[in-house]
């Protein structure tokens, strides 16, 4: 029987918890916006056309900062089309996803939707087909209080208060040949630096995210970050990371250890950014915005006919249905983001509704939780105070893709009154008994112990069976004189909350 010992020291602080780590992403793609968050004919729709049943699930998910409006979409986005009287807004072709954009949801409506969900807006500017001037105009429209052409236009459009958006992305995945207006690192680095300099001339307090690589398998990975930062280092605050994972060729062992790739990705970007910073003798440290991460069965979409020659409104695109194994991997990726929270200061689960999403909807019908909803919502709800790096003593197993992978991974959060332990068991076959030394934490009782696992690791929630998979009580969790003992089922994600 495999066992694991975890030791938690109160002073092993990675970083104080910044709730931006629980961000998400809404792109004008498929049915994320149209027939997702927005469906004016739906019985729960409000006066803006937003579904309130979806709003309720978003609140339960506990996502914080929401990136908008793309993604690849942003590289063709004309923000001016998306404001003002709805009946006058033009219908455009979205080249990124080959669909029709009606602009019925735009900057002002989305900002109102965020208020309903209690989230912060993280806006992306178009550096694909547009540039500095359009970015500055959008910034003025959104953030300037009043008395200028564009701020007065916003007020005339019905939004008297500025949106006061703090985080801005300087384009999206500009290294990707699929991106409208993609560039070399040198060209993008120069444009990003100039755009950032101009935006900060308007507001020194903005937090700007420069595009890093679209994935660690990009041929330019590493060099891209170095070149871009050599141009933009002093003007920006974050560099972005994007990573999607999927089970390939039935290799569940490797898939369950996907977070090792995320760890490699983070370490490479941190060391590259620090190399540039040191070379420039800068006192500043660049933070990472992991603003696209998730499970995405991309190989299947590439082979499908979802993106075809028709120009359709709200087509069903990227509607992955997630399994228990997918949820365990997602929970583990979130553990890895927290374990690197000293540098990964912001992250966005991509995406939020219908498109590779934790929440699914049917037009005129229900909204429901995918399996991946659960580890995200529980972590967001229970995490508080400081993120603590535990010491984990556990055997490893072999994987074809990542080499040796520890069978158990975990992260801990704690404040003065409560703490939480989040754990995964990557073993396909064995339950693992884990003892956790929590004697240095405010932990005299267990307030909650839940797990996500199933006899069928490929079980899913679907339209027909929306509650097939859910959280279960983690049976047998016990606390005795500062030692928490749990038995983690095979292929499971679990959370235990403790209080003083
Ligand atoms: O999240 C889906 C897409 O993935 C985004 O539009 C793009 O940025 C990435 O390639």
From TrEMBL:
Taxonomic lineage: Bacteria, Bacillati, Actinomycetota, Actinomycetes, Micrococcales
InterPro entries: Alpha-L-AF_C (IPR010720), ASD1_cat (IPR055235), GH (IPR017853), Glyco_hydro_b (IPR013780)
Keyword entries, A-Z: Carbohydrate metabolism, Glycosidase, Hydrolase
Assembly and oligomerization: Homohexamer; trimer of dimers.
This protein's name: non-reducing end alpha-L-arabinofuranosidase
Catalytic activity, reaction form: Hydrolysis of terminal non-reducing alpha-L-arabinofuranoside residues in alpha-L-arabinosides
Stated family: Belongs to the glycosyl hydrolase 51 family.
Segments traversing the membrane: none
SMART domains registered for this protein in UniProt: Alpha-L-AF_C
Domain Alpha-L-arabinofuranosidase C-terminal positions: 291-492
Enzyme Commission numbers on file: 3.2.1.55
